[in-house]
Amino acid sequence: MTLPDAMRAVEISQPGGPEVLRPVTRPVPESGPSDIVIRVAWAGVNRPDALQRAGAYAAPPGASDLPGLEAAGEIVAVGAEVTRWQVGDHVCALLPGGGYAEFVATPADHALPVPAGLTLDQAACLPETFFTVWSNVFMRAGLRAGETLLVHGGSSGIGTTAIQLATAFGARVFTTAGTAEKCQICERLGAERAINYREEDFVEVLKAEGGAHVILDMVGGSYIPRNIKALRTEGRLVQIAFLESPKVELNFAQVMLRRLTITGSTLRPQSDAAKAEIARQLEEKVWPLLASGDLGPVMDSEFALEDAARAHARMESSAHIGKIVLKVAG
User: Fold this and answer.
1) What is the rounded CA–CA span in Å between residue 95 and residue 106?
2) Model pTM greater than 0.90?
3) Is the pLDDT of residue 2 over 90?
4) Terminal-to-terminal C-alpha distance of the chain
5) Residue 1: is its pLDDT beyond 80?
6) What percent of the chain has a predicted confidence (pLDDT) above 90?
7) What does the pLDDT read at residue 115?
8) Distances from the Cα of 217 to the Cαs of 23, 93, 175, 268, in angstroms?
9) Torsions phi, psi of 124, nearest 5?
10) What residue ranges carry the coiled-coil annotation (predicted)?
11) CA–CA distance, 254 with 99 (Å, rounded to integer)
């Protein structure tokens, strides 16, 4: 397949607010020996994109400086070492960057087939959140059937994914959200109880249930010592982001006395091999649930690629429920 020399894209013109996102023309990326090039139909919008835009989350060495960590579309080129994929295959993929563009290159092992029954816009919502939730809640924290999971930010893309996955694998799920509407949606997705954090104390709710085995948190700051109180003995706190602060004063006596585990991760800096292993586990254990309709992405809104600034403003307003996507190609 002959590819054009140039493509439409959206770049970060300088660190700042959503207004610094600017439509540009860029060269079409080439595939390395183990890469694929995807003609992007839809790209997901995620909090790390906004952090990168603000100058707080630099792209790793060798990655595109364009934002965008997930996309879905058609493979248009494959590297010499790639054996699984062929030109014309439809995939969704975790990206090192560059998703806000008509074409993007990514390691072939980070791509997954579009689950049966899902459209490309739905598929573009999957990689970043499902990789993040699976690796942190199941691989890192070891959530098991019958255990209790507390998910903060239950109406976010991460939250709606975590609620569904944990429920599907037999856990009891509690979550926090900021409005009655968001709480209702979380409960429809499978949460046993959605706690309006503006009206109730999640610590007291979880203590009444015996405490959480696992807490997935992206707030940080003042939530960290409260999370420690909400965990049961031998509970596990998994930190994946900081909407508040990464710095807090914490009494570690409770960590020792109750044998708690505090862990966490960010996805983008991990090795290609680590991401490939997450992809392998997702395809084996989660993709069949997507194909059967037992779980699926919750979608909030879509914007044209050139309207990426509006998409970021929507995400940062926290009014959204679920995922926001950019339409790149028809």
Assistant:
1) 6
2) yes
3) no
4) 18
5) no
6) 98
7) 97
8) 34, 24, 10, 18
9) -65, -15
10) none
11) 43
What 3-state class would DSSP assign to 8?
Answer: strand
The mean pLDDT of the chain is: 97
* Element (DSSP H or E) covering residue 71: strand 70-78
Vertex 326 angle, CA 6 and 242, to 5°: 115
Place of tokens 């994929």: 85
pLDDT on residue 117: 96
| pLDDT 10s digits, 209-234 | 999 999 999 999 999 999 999 999 99
Whether the CB-CB separation of 92 and 111 falls below 8 Å is answered with yes
> What structural domains and CATH numbers belong to the chain?
6-126+270-327 (3.90.180.10), 130-264 (3.40.50.720)
Q: Which amino acid is at 15?
A: P
Residues in the chain: 330
CA distances to 192, 226, 247 from 250, rounded to whole Å, are 29, 10, 9
| Dist. CA 121–CA 208, nearest whole Å | 40
Q: Are 205 and 183 in contact (CB under 8 A)?
A: no
Please tell me the distance from the alpha carbon of residue 261 to that of residue 239, in angstroms, as a whole number: 11
